[in-house]
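User: I'm new to structure prediction. If I give you an amino acid sequence, what do you actually give back? Let's try with this one:
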Amino acid sequence: MPNNMFTETQSFRRWIFVLVPIHVLFLVGIYQQVLMNKPFGDNPMPDAGLFIAEGGMLLLTLFFYSLKLETILDGKGISVRFLPIYRSYRIYQWSDISKAYVREYSPIMEYGGWGFRSSLKGNGKAWNVSGSTGLQIEMKDGTMFLIGTQKPEELSAVLMQYYK
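Assistant: Good question. You get back a string of structure tokens that encode the predicted 3D arrangement of the chain. For your 164 residues, that looks like this:
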């Protein structure tokens, strides 16, 4: 990769560790209630409900597993997409950007968390996966956008080559 280009792919894979215990709970419930014929809990869910709940959790886990935030800085500008939701890149051309810089931010206080977010403090929209560092983009038309990054030093070094 040339030193005047930056690429980063981030994923929501950490969320899998939150979802897996819920899978285990439903699987234990299915095992105990359906296979062992013992009610699971004081007010057991119907067998079909356990299977539907586990199927829904499986789909949710696969969805989170497939999410990817891809960022590219090159001669065209800053390109970003959030797969599988946005398949095409959104391209912010250098000529349309008034400011671009890496900054620390509070995902929860400023944007209400991670993912596709709108600022609670007037900082525009954010696409982020984890952490608290992002590329703040201010467009000439006044709109603002933040892209989360896990590589702030590398991003800053490449950004300085294109935007001064």
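You can read the tokens as a compact description of the fold. Here is one thing that stands out. Residues 68-162 form a domain with the PH-domain like fold (CATH 2.30.29).
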